[in-house]
Specification:
InterPro entries: DUF3775. With 141 residues, the chain is mainly alpha-helical.
Length: 141
């Protein structure tokens, strides 16, 4: 039987909350990757008989896709200072900037850098969902 290792950290932010962030971040990432898959995003091809009647059915679709990003941005903005610092620290651990044994240092650094742009910073990470997931796994949460 494998013994559970003793944790040297307590998460203020619940692992289930982080998992919601992971799902939303991965959904955002998947949407971006679909657009860039063939390298021809936003290219429009016209054949000789096509006329632009200014139908913008795609705009509703775009707006719907952006809801996930808006929701994630709002969820991150609603976190308290400790939770936000821990979320950033989890991403750093998942990215390999810190080891799980350096949890307290990562949180302290994230808290020092804390500002009102945490959501923008995190959403600027192209692999945020993966890094948060790896960070949680590294901590055994």
């Amino acid at each position: 039987m494998q013994q559970r290792r003793e944790k040297e950290w307590d998460l203020t932010i619940g692992p289930d909350t982080v998992r919601v962030f992971i799902l939303k971040a991965k959904a955002i990432s998947a949407g971006v990757n679909e657009d860039y898959e063939d390298g021809a995003e936003h290219e429009i091809e016209y054949d000789g008989g096509t006329h632009d009647n200014h139908h913008h059915a795609g705009l509703a679709e775009e707006e719907e896709e952006n809801l996930t990003e808006k929701e994630l941005r709002q969820l991150i903005s609603d976190l308290n200072v400790d939770e936000a610092a821990e979320l950033v620290a989890l991403a750093w651990i998942g990215r390999g900037d810190y080891d799980a044994s350096e949890w307290q240092d990562a949180v302290a650094e994230a808290r020092q850098r804390s500002n009102r742009r945490t959501a923008k910073y995190l959403l600027g990470m192209p692999m945020l969902g993966d890094w948060l997931e790896e960070g949680l796994e590294a901590l055994g949460a």
